[in-house]
Design goal:
The protein is an alpha/beta fold. The chain is built from 10 helices and 13 strands. Helix 5 (about 170-180) links the parallel strand 8 (about 155-160) and strand 9. The protein is globular.
Length: about 325
């Protein structure tokens, strides 16, 4: 059976994978307006607000990609006990996502990134967040809630945006629980400490993230890519390292092999959120019985679809099939 035949078979399947996303949840808040004059108070434009919108950001974008593909999704994380936190849960529940494992922490706000735009030009971004590690009490509460959920999940995604959820202790604790239940953990990493991901099945950095974590100046070719990967394998004992390479596609690396998958995109308008689409598609297809190589090839198609749109976008199985046959 070809990979296309396998994808078509899950189009008609009644059973969809159950995927647990543990991650840094946030709201992307947009203020849209126009600016035709400068403020008399300071040399800055005055924005006349015309519209405001909110969408899910961070791990929430991963969740929306999984929902679009058809997965049954449960999401876990920590948000503030505030208006934006309630709005975040409302958006997720409207998507049919299980939110029982989201914990409200009154000591920190829900992470909100506010972007002020005049026409198509972003003038400023305002971040409201606390990036300190979550408390031991909150970490214990989250772990207790997740034990049963981990056991029933087909695969687990860690969507790390370095906002305080994935402390080394909690990350290792959750990976151990997953491994004890023989569940694969795949990680979209952030930051320089990859040792906390020790025991994960698959880690997906981009080229820049890999270079920084491996403490190398840059990665220009496959040889330098493999050399940087050695550092990560030593730190994490992961089975697969999948490195996204922008216009060059992605590389699938194990300790013994490496394979370059060329980019599928024919048009690129906006790469915003493409990494979230890739990690979601890889998890979805592995959980649906595809090999890592097949899942990455399909994730390449998914990324090619979303970069044709402006802003964070999602895709569907039908669109992936269409992209594969064009």
């Amino acid at each position: 059976m070809t990979i296309l035949d396998k994808v078509r078979s899950i189009q008609s399947s009644q059973k969809q994978p159950s995927i647990l996303v543990i991650g840094d949840l946030m709201i992307d808040h947009y203020i849209w307006g126009n600016a035709t004059r400068l403020s008399p108070e300071a040399p800055v434009p005055i924005v006349n607000v015309k519209n405001e919108s909110t969408t899910l950001g961070g791990a929430g974008n991963v969740v929306q990609n999984l929902v679009s593909l058809g997965a049954n999704v449960t999401v876990a994380g920590v948000i503030g006990d505030d208006t934006m936190g309630n709005q975040l849960i409302g958006i997720l529940e409207a998507e049919g996502v299980t939110t029982d494992t989201i914990i409200k922490d009154s000591s920190r706000p829900t992470t909100v990134k506010t972007r002020v735009l005049a026409g198509r030009h972003q003038l400023v971004r305002i971040d409201k967040e606390v990036t300190d590690a979550v408390s031991v009490l909150i970490a214990n509460e989250l772990t207790d809630k997740l034990v049963e959920i981990i056991d029933s999940a087909d695969i687990i995604i860690f969507s790390d945006y370095n906002k305080g959820l994935f402390s080394p202790a909690l990350t290792q604790r959750l990976i151990k629980i997953a491994n004890d239940h023989q569940k694969k953990v795949i990680i979209d990493p952030k930051g320089l400490n990859y040792e906390k991901y020790n025991g994960a099945y698959l880690i997906k950095p981009n080229r820049k993230e890999l270079a920084e974590a491996a403490k190398t100046e840059s990665i220009k070719n496959i040889a330098e890519l493999q050399e940087a990967a050695k550092t990560i394998f030593e730190q994490t004992q992961t089975t697969y390292l999948v490195v996204t390479l922008s216009e060059e596609g992605m590389a699938i690396i194990t300790e013994q092999t490496s394979k370059l998958l060329p980019v599928k995109a024919r048009e690129v308008f906006d790469v915003t959120g493409a990494g979230d689409t890739v990690i979601a598609a890889i998890a979805y297809f592995i959980a649906s019985g595809f090999t890592v190589e097949e899942a990455c090839d399909l994730a390449n198609h998914a990324a090619a679809i979303v970069v044709r749109h402006v802003g964070s976008a999602t895709t569907t199985i039908d669109e992936i099939v269409k992209d594969m046959t064009e």
